[in-house]
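User: Here's a structure from my thesis project, written as structure tokens. My advisor, Dr. K., wants to see whether a designed sequence matches the one we expressed. Can you design one independently, without my sequence as a hint?
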């Protein structure tokens, strides 16, 4: 009989089953088509994608840390492996550490640079997509105080021409 069995905690008399994690499919191997690769740019976006990828394959926090260097350039992988958060398997600390290390190459999603790039690229995308992205970026910039509403209208016209 299982040491966890008592009449109070197991009324059916059966032995409690262990919880098994079942992975569906396999994460693309480093270098394969569709595999993520962190090259030092846009760390926040990469970490969001890594988190989603790892969640899809049921990786726990320690596995996220352990596997990450394989999905980075060799130099970045070595930097990660030398960090305390990697060694300790502390995923939250590793994310913070990476954001601190690569902040200069991290482009916020809703930045002035992103707005200008969207305007520049507007001839190559559908008007519906442009308007939707423009609205999200410009609203965020107005809320931050980095874009005045009168500038918003002028930039919208720039993108529509």
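Assistant: Designed independently from the structure alone:
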């Amino acid at each position: 009989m299982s040491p966890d069995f008592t009449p109070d905690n197991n009324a059916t008399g059966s032995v409690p089953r262990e919880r098994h994690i079942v992975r569906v499919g396999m994460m693309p191997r480093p270098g394969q088509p569709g595999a993520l690769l962190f090259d030092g740019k846009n760390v926040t976006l990469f970490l969001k994608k890594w988190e989603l990828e790892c969640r899809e394959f049921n990786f726990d926090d320690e596995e996220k840390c352990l596997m990450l260097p394989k999905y980075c350039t060799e130099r970045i992988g070595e930097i990660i492996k030398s960090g305390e958060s990697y060694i300790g398997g502390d995923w939250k600390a590793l994310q913070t550490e990476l954001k601190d290390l690569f902040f200069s190459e991290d482009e916020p999603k809703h930045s002035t640079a992103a707005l200008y790039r969207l305007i520049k690229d507007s001839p190559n995308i559908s008007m519906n997509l442009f308007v939707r992205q423009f609205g999200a970026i410009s609203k965020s910039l107005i809320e931050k105080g980095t874009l005045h509403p009168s500038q918003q209208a002028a930039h919208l016209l720039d993108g529509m021409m």
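When you compare it with your expressed construct, this may help: The two ends are 77 Å apart (CA to CA).
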